[in-house]
Automatic annotation (TrEMBL):
InterPro entries in UniProt: GPCR1_Superfamily_Member, GPCR_Rhodpsn, GPCR_Rhodpsn_7TM
Keywords, comma-separated and alphabetical: Membrane, Transmembrane, Transmembrane helix
Originating species: Astyanax mexicanus (Blind cave fish)
Keyword flag Kinase: no
This protein's record includes keyword Transmembrane: yes
Database matches in Gene3D superfamilies: Rhodopsin 7-helix transmembrane proteins
Transmembrane region(s): 24-45, 57-78, 90-111, 132-153, 178-199, 220-239, 259-279
Cellular compartments annotated: Membrane
The G-protein coupled receptors family 1 profile domain, residue ranges: 98-277
Protein name according to UniProt: G-protein coupled receptors family 1 profile domain-containing protein
Main location (coarse class): membrane
GO cellular component: membrane
A single GO molecular function term of this UniProt record: G protein-coupled receptor activity
Length: 312
């Protein structure tokens, strides 16, 4: 286990102006991110029509999961990129749960576009519950293996403080190999679902009538955006392997590399979900704008009636 030595702490320029600027910038970005997410969660909870629709329920889960992940990650940033190994396990769980939820959202769009007559029968509360159980169970496989394997090898160091990276918890080669296989299988499964749903929706878009062409084309773009999110999320899994060699060379260089990876592969993909569903979805955006402006803008009542949304 690579514990943090006094020399490493002395080399870490915690009070340097450049480091403090990075920390303040991260706080500003995370603060904006959490404010937008909280506003969207509030919008979701306020309207029953959203709480009964599978696509919005899945969207709400991404907001909850991404917000929790960002809070834990931000604590690591404020803590000078050092953290408790137990929270590393929690962050690993959340980092897998988010892309799996994106995959579920793509499947929901596939059912809605390609099987519209069966959508209501498939998208039930029981199906949603089963889907969430599957997502949470699969998300727990990799972090559970990492934690159990680490404790079995280092029972006396289970609660020591380490560099906040799951990879430093894998001392044995077989541990890293098994975890890599688990993540690879997850990635191939998620990639296969994304490609499958994209192809099916693309076929449906070509065969759709002019009235449904707009809806299917929008769903196609949504799946593409989810695919891009998935790509960024998957790259996040390999960034620790890029960062750790810099830790051995120079702490400041390690901080700069981790900071860049944090912005590009952790913050950026989690900013896309609010844009995809919060801003591009006309129904949700109408209600969101109302609450964002503290009710000063009036509702379009004709649209509310059309979408069966009760004004409040």
């Amino acid at each position: 286990m690579q514990n943090i030595s006094n020399s490493s702490l002395n080399r870490n320029p915690l009070i340097s102006p450049s480091f403090m600027q990075k920390v303040f910038l991260v706080q500003a970005l995370v603060g904006i991110f959490l404010y937008v997410n909280c506003l969207m969660i509030f919008t979701f909870l306020k309207k029953e029509v959203f709480r009964e629709d599978t696509r919005y329920i899945l969207f709400a889960q991404t907001l909850f999961v991404d917000s929790a992940f960002m809070v834990l990650t931000d604590i690591g940033v404020v803590g000078s990129f050092f953290h408790d190994s137990r929270n590393c396990t929690a962050m690993s769980f959340l980092s897998v749960c988010s892309p799996l939820t994106l995959v579920a959202m793509c499947l929901e769009r596939y059912v809605a576009i390609c099987m519209p007559l069966r959508h209501a029968d498939i998208s039930t509360s029981r199906t949603r519950f089963s889907g969430f159980v599957i997502i949470w169970s699969v998300s727990f496989i990799a972090p559970a293996f990492t934690a159990i394997a680490y404790i079995s090898v280092n029972p006396s160091s289970a609660f020591s403080y380490v560099v906040c990276s799951v990879e430093v918890m894998l001392e044995k080669e077989w541990q890293a190999q098994v975890r890599a296989v688990i993540l690879l299988l997850l990635f191939l499964f998620m990639l296969a679902v994304i490609v499958f749903t994209y192809i099916k929706i693309m076929i449906a878009a070509r065969a759709a009538s002019s009235e449904k062409k707009k809806s299917t084309s929008k769903s196609l773009r949504t799946v593409l955006l989810h695919g891009f999110q998935l790509f960024l999320s998957i790259v996040q899994f390999i960034t620790p392997y890029i960062e750790m060699p810099f830790w051995k060379l120079d702490v400041m260089l390690f901080i700069n590399v981790r900071y860049s990876n944090f912005i590009v592969f952790i913050l950026a993909p989690r900013c896309l979900s609010p844009l995809i569903y919060g801003m591009r979805d006309e129904k949700f955006f109408l209600v969101l704008r109302h609450y964002a402006l503290w009710g000063f803008n009036g509702f379009n009542h004709s649209l509310l009636i059309q979408w069966k949304i009760r004004p409040s």
